Amino acid sequence: MSSEQFAFLIVLLWNIWNRRNRWIHSGQLIPTRLVAEYAQLVHGDYQQVAENIVDSIPCAREKKWMKPGPGVIKINVDGAWNVTTRMAAIGIIA
Q1: 54 closest CA partner among 7, 9, 1
Q2: Is-above-0.85 flag for pTM?
Q3: Separation of alpha carbons 14 and 42, rounded Å
């Protein structure tokens, strides 16, 4: 799969997810055809923007993740809230 096809897949999946949320939360069911057409429009806009900014960010492709040095601890935090049960959870990993 090319990077362009992958980008379209991500946009399409986002639109499908958005359609589902609108249906569940507001009862509005968007026709499948419109979801696909909107995904194509958004992907086209993305391509235009990406072509203009990729060259202006030379370091974006050069940087790679590096393991933290000695004595450095990386901490990731995430949380969730369940509206129905009114319970929250947090996860922390170092």
Answers
A1: 7
A2: no
A3: 11
